[in-house]
Structures are given as C-alpha cells and as structure tokens.
Amino acid sequence: MRSNRLAGHTLPNEGRIQVRGIWVEVGPARCSCGVESEPLKSDNARRRWHFAHKAEIRAAQEASA
Ligand SMILES: [Zn+2]
Prior knowledge:
Layout: E1 17-19, E2 22-24, E3 27-30, E4 36-40, H1 43-64
Antiparallel strand pairs: 1-2, 3-4
This protein binds zinc ion (ZN).
C-alpha cells in the first residue's frame, strides 16, 4: 500500500482547529495548499475531507501525467 502523503498538501494539527486560541469542534478543514472545506463537525470529518481532497489531487495529477 502506498503512502498517503502528498507533497504540498498537509492538514495542520491533524484536523484540529483553534479559534482565537481555543480548540473548537466545528469548523472548516484547511489544507496547506489553501483549499478549505465547508464547516465540519469533528476532527475525524476534517481528516476524511483531507483524505478525499488528496485523492482528488492525485487523480488529477495522474490524469495529466
Ligand atoms: Zn491541498
């Protein structure tokens, strides 16, 4: 099984987010490439979003290679 890492696409704090220094449950995931999700209700939901986001990027890269 190949690595799920993708250069240029990381999810800070594994999907956990802070608002003014306080950890919160609901909010958007934001990839290091600048793409942002709609507000999600948990860290797990944000990690799932990022996993799908990377799959899309990878598919696009393979389609253009
Ligand atoms: Zn990204």
